[in-house]
Write a structure and sequence with these properties.
Structural class: mainly alpha
Radius of gyration: 67 Å
Number of strands: 0
Order of helices and strands: HHH
Shape: rod-shaped
Distance between the termini: 177 Å
Strand content: under 5%
Number of helices: 3
């Protein structure tokens, strides 16, 4: 039933109808129902507006949330990238330092080997020279002993042995 389709109270009275207490009460109820229906429509319209505003607000908040999440993900990605770049640079610097240390160590080892080789060569030359001197001295002593032996063999002392013979050999060489 649509209460709006009924004519208002004053229009019905003009049509010549009787007005009784019951009719007046009914008309008042109808009027109250019309006002209630209008209030319900207004409330429904207001509720629809509130729902629309709530939906719009929710959509906006979701969009803001998604935007913030994207921004945070981008910041995290940049931080990870910066950290990995920093770690890569640190590792490269460490590798460069290790390479330089290895090169210095290699140069130092070569220098030490060259110094050692030079020192050993000089030491070997000194030893060779000392051995030559000793050989020359040994040969000269052998020549001296050989000359003494020839002298002793010419004197007829075949049994040259002991202190007394040695003293005689000395006297023969001195005298």
């Amino acid at each position: 039933q649509n209460l709006d389709s009924l004519p208002p109270f004053s229009a019905r009275r003009a049509m010549g109808g009787c007005t009784s207490a019951q009719v007046i009460a009914s008309q008042r109820e109808l009027q109250a129902l019309r006002e209630l229906q209008a209030a319900q429509r207004a409330a429904q319209d207001e509720m629809a507006k509130v729902k629309t505003q709530h939906t719009e607000t929710t959509v906006k908040l979701q969009e803001q949330h998604q935007t913030e999440v994207k921004e945070l993900n981008a910041r995290i990605s940049k931080m990870i990238e910066a950290t990995s770049e920093e770690n890569r640079k640190i590792q490269e610097a460490h590798m460069d330092e290790m390479r330089q240390m290895q090169e210095r160590h290699t140069k130092e080892m070569r220098r030490i080997q060259e110094d050692h080789h030079s020192h050993m060569s000089q030491e070997l030359l000194r030893h060779v020279e000392d051995v030559r001197k000793m050989q020359v001295e040994y040969r000269s002593q052998l020549k001296g002993v050989g000359a003494d032996m020839r002298y002793l063999s010419n004197t007829g002392m075949t049994n040259w042995c002991g202190v007394s013979n040695m003293a005689m050999a000395k006297q023969a060489t001195v005298g």
